[in-house]
Amino acid sequence: MKTRLVALLLLVGLLTVCAPVFAHHGNVAYDETKIVVVKDAKVTKFMWTNPHCLILFDAADEKGNVVHWAVEGGSPSALAPAGWTRNSVKPGDVVTVYLHQSKAGTPVGRETKIVLADGTELSDR
Amino acid sequence: MTNRLVECSVAGLIGVLALSSIAVAQTSQPRQATGQQSATATASTAGAGQAGSEIEGKGQQMPHYKYAGPPGPAPKQDLSGEWGGPLSAAKVDPVPPMTAWGQERFAANKSNQKINVADSNDPLDTCDPLGFPRNALWESRGIAFAKMPDKVVELFQYEKVWREIWTDGRALPKNVGSDIPNSPDPRYYGYSVGHWDGDYTLVVDTVGLDDSTWLDNAGHPHSGDLHVNERYTRVDQHTLEMTVTLDDPKVFTRPWMAGQTTFKWIPEQQFDEQLCIPSHMQDYYKLLANPAAGVGTK
Questions:
Q1: Residues B135 and B275 in one domain
Q2: How many CB atoms lie within 10 A of CB A60?
Q3: Residue, of B112 and B5, whose pLDDT is higher
Q4: Does the beta-carbon distance from A77 to B274 stay under 8 Å?
Q5: B15, B275, B287 member nearest A54 (Cβ)
Q6: B64 vs A94 pLDDT, higher one
Q7: Residue by residue, what is the 3-state secondary structure of B205-236?
Q8: So what's the pLDDT on residue B24?
Q9: Which of A119, B45, B87, B245 has the fewest CB atoms nearer than 10 Å to its CB?
Q10: Which residues of A touch B287 (CB under 8 A)?
Q11: For residues B186 and B204, what is the distance between their CA atoms, to the nearest angstrom?
């Protein structure tokens, strides 16, 4: 079990290294060396638009204060083949967000994957 | 970029090997929680050459189209229809050395590949037209050709723009943008003429390009003297090969083939709608780009 967990973490780490050059902007502003996982993220807005889809959500920080987050994803043309639609996420949905956070430490980032409440995964790599 | 590709390949390979060890461990086990499944799925994507990611300059990310049967032969002198392509053309020649003028312009173009979007001056970030040939080399997910009397019209999925390729034998305009009275204005999408080389290749020449546009996301400039030559070869009923060659002696010390793309016939013959929307771009700056750079307001 432990060996499997280590291998799993190794994979996640390596996949993070492999971040491709994204479509419209470089990701200079984001720390791509690690993935931040935000659980119990309550979606407040989902913008299915070019050049990047945006997901706005609220999540509690370590102290329990509500933080307003914003993450960008690929364009609809890029996400649709991966199973995303404009209705994938709605305000009120509670999801888990995997993201590269801004180097400035602000609550913004570039999401790499979201996991819906029913376990459905929507990847953005 | 090359180093990164090597790193990715090595990492991908290691990922596949690591994945194999997990797969072996799991063969005799019932399905586990979603978390482990997801790692498996993601890792196999990485091992398979990052299908689902979009890597610039690689000409990859072809949509998977389904056809009833094998393609028939190419019709003669006919590119009509809608074609699906990758995010960007595959790079062919490396960018040649630039002249002093070219280098100065290049330095002034602050690409968002290198710095925060908030600090970039890429005209794309304000939804300015991509212009030609940037829109042939990048954001090339959909192009279409249609015949009109005396010309072929090319339509672009990105930004829903079009350009005219005159096939009536006329010459390219001269002295575009010059001080000579009545000379034509420069255009973002230039002036194009085309002729057939045999039955399957349309050769397009373009001049008169407004130098406001960038050549690529790195911010390479072009001058109003740029001459673009494209070749579109219909290989078979479902396959269209494009090459783009640039000649701009004011900027580059030699002509070069900047990109090559294989387009595939779109079975449904329908594009996505893909626009750059200024108000959405403003939201993007307010919600993402500026906070990401630690900037208060735009």
A1: yes
A2: 14
A3: B112
A4: yes
A5: B287
A6: A94
A7: EEECECCCCCCCCCCCCCCCCCEEEEEEEEEE
A8: 39
A9: A119
A10: 54, 56, 70, 108
A11: 18
Query: CB A125 to CB B45 under 8 A?
Result: yes
Q: How confident is the model at residue A15 (pLDDT cuts 50, 70, 90)?
A: very low
CA distances from B56 to B80, B110, B113, B127, B166 (A): 27, 18, 11, 20, 31
Per-residue pLDDT at B205: 98
CATH value at residue A91: 2.40.50
Q: How far is A118 from chain B (nearest CA, A)?
A: 10
Give a yes or no: residue B7 inside a domain. yes
State the best of A21, A49, A101, A115 to mutate against chain B, taking most chain B CBs within 10 Å.
A21
Domain residues for the domain of A101 are 2-123
* pLDDT greater than 80 at residue A20: no
Share of chain B above pLDDT 90, in %: 69
Q: Is B114 an interface residue toward A (CB < 8 Å)? A: yes
d(CA A122, CA A100): 16
pLDDT at B53 over 60: no
pLDDT over threshold 80, residue B187 = yes
- Inform me whether the C-beta atom of residue B278 falls under 8 Å from chain A C-beta atoms: no
Complex prediction ipTM: 0.74
Mean pLDDT of B34-40: 29
Classify residue B63: in a domain, yes or no: no
Count: domains in chain A: 1
CA quadruple A122, B36, B41, A11: dihedral sign: positive
The CA distance from B114 to the nearest CA of chain A, in Å, is 6
- Check whether residue B280 and residue B182 sit in a common domain: yes
Contact B277, A49 (CB under 8 A): yes
Q: Which residue of B has its CA nearest to A7?
A: B18
Can you read off the two tokens belonging to residue B286?
Answer: 């307010």
On whether both B264 and B137 belong to a single domain, the answer is yes
Rounded to an integer, the average pLDDT of A2-26 is 51
For chain B, how many structural domains are there in total?
A: 2
**Is residue B66 a part of any domain in this protein?**
no
For residue B12, the enclosing domain spans 1-25+35-42
Using the predicted structure, report yes or no on whether residue B215 has a pLDDT greater than 50.
yes
- Chain A environment of B284 (Cβ under 8 Å): 51-52, 54, 72
Give the span between the Cα atoms of A72 and B284, in whole angstroms.
9
Look at residue B165 and tell me if it is in a domain: yes
B101 and B228 share a domain? yes
One domain, residues B121 and B265: yes
B141 shares its domain with B20: no
**CB-based contact, B115 to chain A, within 8 Å:** yes
